[in-house]
Write the structure tokens for this entry.
Amino acid sequence: MDTNLIFFLICTIPAITLYGVAKSGLGGSMSLISIPLMTLVMPLSKALAIILPILILSDAVAVYKFRKQFDLDTVKLMVIGGGIGVIIGSLTYTLFSESTIKALIGLMGFCFTTHYFIFKRKKIIPLKKSLLKGGISSLVAGFASFCAHSGGTPTSIYLLPLRLKKEIYVGTRVIFLCFLI
């Protein structure tokens, strides 16, 4: 068997599996690893094209499942910023090189991890909804979603500190990210 094919399979099968698991709500932001892993063996545009049908199908199933369990006020707050982020992404996507987009994905993963460890609290004190924080994180989510199907991480940065019930958190996240497709 050709070593290029083996390396291709070693990179793409775990990446697609990770993406599917993360989109089901079990893996959180593990999907951030998927695109960079796939870009080891193919151009970014092809990796994004392969992931898109999985994204659409899993979002359709998740929206149906959580159609009654989400925080409407939070979704309303985030949809405007997310829409603006998608528009900015669509207008500026061609200005970025593939290596710049890869660096942005890596930076976003680093920021999410850093944010998690710095602001991890032992006390479970829910933060209040914030138009500024929600707007900024949803704008970044819209941009990241358009450019690299990675809008879940900025969404989590805003939603997790709200300490919503598990089902409401997942439903709110799913409904919001569905608007970004």
The chain has one domain: 3-179. The CA atoms of residues 12 and 38 lie 5 Å apart. DSSP finds eight helices and no strands in the chain. Residues 3-179 form one domain.
